[in-house]
Amino acid sequence: MENSGGIQASLPGRYATALFELARDAKSIDKVEASLATLRAALDQSADFKTLTTSPLIARGAATKAVAAVATMLKLDATTTKFLGVLADNRRLAQLPVIIRAFRQLAASFRGETTAEVTSAHALTDDQVTALKQSLRQRIGREVSVDLSVDPSLLGGLVVRIGSQMIDSSIKTRLNSLALAMKG
Length: 184
Known about the structure:
The chain is of the alpha+beta class. The protein has 9 helices and 4 strands; from the N terminus they run H-H-H-H-H-H-H-E-H-E-E-E-H.
């Protein structure tokens, strides 16, 4: 598979590429992607899980056992579960968010889609996500998958990144622009 040098050049990118190739060969890209989305949600919602993945104080063996338990609890697929074990053994769990993002980009590229990183002030509803995808599809001219995240500091609006292009309609940016304009 042809990948951009940017993804393969980074350590998390190499892990994501290896996971993608395993998933592609096993014809389980969708299952792995769903498991990674579950993991991403767990990282966002659980401070304990986030600490498990980022703390250097947790021993390698303890981290391996803990992620195996989390994988069972979250009902992750076998490929993702084994992959988490490898990350824990290699002390790379802190790279999980970047690996998930890179995997999503690889999977979207494989399907002929473009990935948009969307940051909003509040979680978007399913209807809002559908409308956003449709709007981006019209703008870009191809299918778009979205990688959603929430940043309350935006106050409102969205920040959308598609490749090197960024669309920032957040209230935070508008207020900063207004403050600069008022300074003269």
